[in-house]
Amino acid sequence: MTLTLVSVILLTRSSSFLVFITEKGIGLLDFLSLFILLIPWLLTIIIPASLFISLLICFNKMIYSNEIAILKNAGLSKFNIIKPVILLAIISSIICYIIALYLMPMANKVLKMKKYNFQLNYSNIMISERVFEHLNDRTIIVEEREGNILSGILIYDNSNPDYSITITAIDGMIEKKINSLLIHLYKGTIQRFNNETEITEILKFDSYVVDLNQEEKTSDVTWKARERYFGELLDYDPNLHPKHIAQYKVEVHKRITMPLFSIILTLIATSSLFSSSFNRRGNLKNILKAIFLAILFIILSVLIYNMMEKSMIFTPLIYLNFLIFFIFCSFLIAKNKI
């Protein structure tokens, strides 16, 4: 069940990563690694949902086959019947806490750095004939290409704000390395235009090498709230923009409450299916009731999270939402006879 839901969500996210194949020419393994890094975030959503759906199916089947009545007649109490389910929900929540507090921010950091490096790494870039290739602040076009041999080459570099460089060459050759792409140019010119003085300097060369890769600058990377560990969210710079501080605070409460979805959804499924007398002809009414309550709980949680991003005054509401559903479902379980 979990694998199916993960696959569906991964497919919906594939479009955002296709640009790295079409424009950056990354390999299949690098492409698949991006999806793997999404799994920790997905599991924090998929595990509670899969547990809820599995419980509905399992309990409905047990009710239909009178297995619950058999367990009761065997001397098992209400608590003993639902005890394994509660323990499973607690274990699922612990797993979600491990993911939310450690695995998810770690994966998000690696994912961001991979995407960042793909933007800077042109070792797999496709240079086609008479097609402008835009590489950040560089533009390349070639007249002809046969394998790694180029002819009629023009490279425009606007990476420096003080001047721009235009390089032309009659011939050239591509040399690919593990993490770099070199272009050896032969018989050409380098035109350097000073933006302030508007003076152009021209230099002729017989041989020249252009490295299309840029050095990684991890210090320039700004980590978003979902990419920070729990301790980093608490130890933020007070001089940050109030919007960013609010995002950190909201993320802290998300990391605390979202793993508890497994427990609340488990209580909703259990209390709904055991809320009335059993009917072997079907239990559709209770199943629909459980689905309605689960959707209501999720919608309220999402709305409160969004409200918290606008004002932290709504923070107590998220805990109140969890508490109300916890007490309500626990009351139904204690009240109803199994």
What would a concise description of this structure say?
The protein is of the alpha+beta class. Helix content is 55%, strand content 18%.
Kindly describe this structure.
With 338 residues, the protein is of the alpha+beta class. The chain folds into two domains: 2-120 and 221-335, no CATH class; 133-211, no CATH class. It is 55% helix and 18% strand. The protein contains eleven helices and six strands. It has a six-stranded antiparallel beta sheet with strand order 1-2-3-4-5-6, with no helix packed on it. The protein is elongated.
Essential attributes:
2 domains; single chain; alpha+beta; 6 strands; 11 helices
Q: Describe the sheet with the most strands.
A: 6 strands, antiparallel
Quantity of strands, as a count: 6
Count of helical stretches: 11
Number of domains: 2
Strand content: 15-25%
Helix share of residues? 55-70%
Low-confidence stretches: 215-219
Tell the overall outline.
Answer: elongated
Mean pLDDT: 82
Task: Report how far apart the termini are.
Answer: 27 Å
Order of helices and strands: HHHHHHEEEEEEHHHHH
Cα-based radius of gyration, to the nearest Å? 29 Å
